[in-house]
Amino acid sequence: MVSVIAYVVYAIDKKAAIKQRQRVSEKSLHLLSLVGGWPGAWIAQQRLRHKTQKTAFKVVYWLTVVINLACLLGLTLYPYEG
């Protein structure tokens, strides 16, 4: 569900960029990725061609992906047993 939200927010930001209106902050986009929306964010970046040229943005985005995958791996290898 978070991925769908991330995609929609990227689309809103892309439209705002085109119309030169108030944008969604990069911090908000990264937060969406961090809480699990990174697949939707990646699809939006590719399909909408949005946020693909800004190196600093891409570095932080991929860091959120790594953090997500590390958490998933940790939960898989060391499940919570109460």
Structure in words:
The chain has helices spanning 2-18, 26-48, 55-77. It starts with a helix and ends in a 5-residue tail after the last helix. Helices cover 77% and strands 0% of the residues. The model has no long low-confidence stretch (mean pLDDT 95). The chain is an all-alpha fold and 82 residues long. It contains three helices and no strands. It has one domain. Helix 1 (2-18) crosses helix 2 and helix 2 (26-48) packs across helix 3 (55-77). It is elongated, with a radius of gyration of 14 Å.
Label this structure with key terms.
mainly alpha; 3 helices; elongated; DUF1294; transmembrane; DUF1294 domain-containing protein; membrane; Cold_shock_CspA
Strand-helix topology:
Elements: H1 2-18, H2 26-48, H3 55-77
Helix pairs in contact: 1-2, 2-3
Protein name: DUF1294 domain-containing protein
Transmembrane segments: 59-80
Organism: Vreelandella neptunia
Q: What gyration radius follows from the Cα positions, in whole Å?
A: 14 Å
Number of strands: 0
> Count the helices. How many?
3
Helix content: over 70%
Termini, distance in Å?
27 Å
- Which regions contain 5 or more consecutive residues with pLDDT less than 50? none
Succession of helices and strands: HHH
* Strand-residue proportion: under 5%
Biggest sheet: strands, sense, closure?
none
Which term fits the overall shape?
elongated
Domain module tally: 1
- Content-based structural category: mainly alpha
State mean pLDDT (0 to 100 scale). 95
